[in-house]
């Protein structure tokens, strides 16, 4: 009896096809369909064979057996594809295989014959499963109890089933790949250390990962709304420069360009943000944003920059110290040696012994100078390497001590030092013990670089208000050799002058500048008489007044 006369095949095929529509369990759909097809085809076994990706092996993935027929599925895994080479060649020629009696197969089909005999098959019908235009497997109908000949009209029904099964497998494979890609994308989306946000053209949030929610501290009620505008209204309050951020958003709203910026938060956090448009068929459909927290990176970079500057200064300082010691220590030793030689000469001649005290005084002064040099080096290092402790210091007391140093160190010169004070018994500034070094240094330079018979120095003290802060202003005016405008620009720089006629170009004024700046003060130099540097200099310092 033919298949057409036994059942309404179209109805059966329609029922089978409906199983593969929509969301399905593919294994259940295939197994149920195999049972239906096995029944209407009067087959003893219906099997599905699929090639692996490299086509070198194939395996039995699904099987239905009628009552009393043994299953072969476990025996047909990882079968060498060469076994069915003849079979494949036949299918490529006529699109199917229909064998009434496998014993009649030619010698060229020997491996196929043995393959079928191992399954107790007597008659065999197979249709190819095409996926993307390539043979990907076979659906096979087998008779094990008797031989049978499937008719031409039967092929139509069974081929339709094979095609339907191939289409379904191709669709399921595509869906599987899509699902795997979606899972990979989702996992990547969530696993990234960046906060990710995707928005469509209607300002609807389409994607949002957990990292973004954590970085921006977004509450659930804002997330649930999926409204980009509401999200921006919430997060904008966290930013240090909200208007700048909003301006960037407006510029990118209808743009096809990528966007990049750094976002600064009120609490000190720093985000780096990148965005690009979503393009589909040449049209912009939305925009994706990524946010990276670079707070630690930026802070580390700043610290690295500080360290770099610190070590560069240390190198320059070491170079400065080398030159200072080479220059000044040599001078000190030379003066001491010269004084000792003169003393020896005077003692041998026993003449002018009353002048010995003068030379001893020179030696004593030079030793004091050497000690001073060493202390200055130590102080520069301390200023660079430690935090300066500031306190309230009496300016008048410091100046009195500086005067005593000046008169003692310049006994060979005639000095006239005056001070013009404010009418207050005491005047306090925010400083420390280094202020004495500042005043001594300025006085020392005013005396050293003055070749007049009478060295005149006038110190004027006044008060000044700058940027709503009170400062004490101290001016040291002298009648010395003066300083050209060009030298005024570099006089406080570190380094030694090669010109002995240029005053203050050594460790002294570089130290003075550093000390004054540590007080948040300033120091500069002007002409004592305006537009005439030859009439002397005026060194001016301003230091914050103590409360």
Describe the structure in your own words.
This protein has 547 residues and is of the alpha+beta class. It folds into four domains: 3-178, GAF domain (Beta-Lactamase); 193-293, PAS domain (Beta-Lactamase), CATH 3.30.450.20; 296-386; 388-547, Histidine kinase-like ATPase, C-terminal domain (Heat Shock Protein 90, 2-Layer Sandwich). Helix content is 46%, strand content 25%. The protein is built from 16 helices and 18 strands. Strands 3-2-1-6-5-4 form a six-stranded antiparallel β-sheet. It is rod-shaped, with a radius of gyration of 49 Å. The chain starts with a helix and ends with a strand. Mean pLDDT is 81; it is low at 496-507.
Question: Topology of this protein?
Answer:
Blueprint: H1 3-6, H2 9-18, H3 26-41, E1 45-51, E2 57-65, E3 79-80, H4 85-94, E4 97-99, H5 110-117, E5 123-131, E6 134-143, H6 152-191, E7 195-200, E8 205-208, H7 210-216, H8 220-225, H9 228-235, H10 242-252, E9 259-264, E10 270-280, E11 283-293, H11 295-349, H12 356-385, E12 391-394, H13 395-409, E13 414-420, E14 428-431, H14 434-448, E15 454-466, E16 469-478, H15 485-490, H16 507-518, E17 522-529, E18 532-544
Parallel strand pairs: 13-15
Antiparallel strand pairs: 1-2, 1-6, 2-3, 4-5, 5-6, 7-8, 7-11, 9-10, 10-11, 12-14, 15-16, 16-18, 17-18
């Amino acid at each position: 009896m033919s298949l057409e006369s036994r059942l309404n095949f179209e109805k059966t095929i329609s029922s089978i096809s409906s199983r593969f529509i929509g969301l399905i369990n593919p294994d259940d759909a295939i197994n149920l369909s195999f049972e239906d097809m096995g029944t209407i085809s009067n087959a003893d076994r219906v099997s599905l064979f699929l090639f692996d990706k490299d086509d070198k092996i194939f395996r039995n993935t699904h099987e239905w057996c009628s009552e009393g027929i043994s299953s072969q599925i476990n025996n047909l895994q990882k079968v060498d594809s060469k076994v069915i080479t003849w079979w494949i060649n036949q299918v490529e020629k006529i699109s199917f295989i229909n064998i009434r009696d496998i014993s009649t197969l030619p010698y060229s089909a020997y491996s196929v014959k043995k393959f079928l005999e191992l399954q107790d098959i007597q008659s065999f019908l197979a249709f190819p499963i095409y996926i993307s235009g390539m043979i990907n497997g076979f659906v096979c109908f087998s008779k094990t109890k008797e031989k049978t000949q499937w008719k031409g009209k039967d092929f139509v029904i069974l081929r339709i089933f094979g095609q339907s099964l191939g289409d379904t497998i191709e669709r399921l494979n595509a869906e599987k790949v899509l699902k795997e890609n979606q899972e990979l994308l989702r996992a990547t989306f969530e696993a990234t250390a960046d906060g990710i946000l995707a928005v469509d053209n209607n300002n609807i949030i389409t994607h949002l990962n957990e990292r973004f929610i954590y970085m921006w501290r977004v509450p659930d009620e804002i997330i649930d709304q999926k409204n980009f505008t509401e999200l921006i209204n919430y997060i904008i309050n966290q930013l240090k420069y909200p208007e700048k951020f909003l301006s960037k958003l407006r510029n990118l709203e209808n743009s096809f360009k990528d966007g990049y910026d750094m976002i600064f938060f009120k609490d000190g956090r720093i985000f780096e943000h990148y965005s690009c448009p979503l393009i589909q068929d040449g049209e912009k459909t939305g925009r994706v944003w990524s946010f990276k927290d670079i707070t630690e990176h930026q802070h580390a970079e700043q610290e690295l920059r500080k360290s770099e500057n610190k070590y560069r200064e240390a190198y320059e300082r070491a170079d400065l110290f080398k030159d200072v010691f080479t220059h000044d220590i040599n001078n000190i030793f030379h003066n001491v040696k010269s004084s000792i030689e003169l003393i020896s000469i005077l003692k041998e001649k026993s003449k002018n012994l009353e002048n010995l005290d003068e030379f001893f005084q020179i030696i004593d002064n030079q030793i004091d100078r050497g000690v001073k040099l060493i202390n200055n080096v130590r102080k520069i290092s301390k200023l660079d390497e430690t935090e300066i402790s500031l306190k309230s210091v009496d300016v008048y007391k410091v100046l009195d001590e500086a005067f005593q140093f000046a008169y003692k160190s310049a006994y060979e010169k005639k000095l006239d030092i005056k001070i013009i004070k404010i009418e207050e018994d005491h005047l306090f500034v925010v400083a420390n013990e280094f202020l004495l070094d500042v005043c001594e240094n300025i006085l020392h330079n005013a005396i050293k670089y003055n070749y007049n018979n009478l060295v005149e120095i006038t110190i004027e003290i006044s008060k000044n208000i700058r940027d709503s802060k009170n400062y004490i202003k101290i001016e040291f005016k002298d009648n010395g050799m003066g300083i050209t405008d060009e030298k005024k620009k570099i006089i406080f720089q570190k380094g030694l002058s090669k010109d002995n006629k240029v005053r203050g170009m050594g460790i002294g004024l570089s130290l003075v500048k550093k000390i004054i700046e540590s007080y948040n003060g300033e120091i500069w130099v002007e002409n004592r008489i305006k537009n005439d540097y030859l009439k002397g200099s005026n060194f001016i310092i301003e230091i914050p007044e103590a409360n």
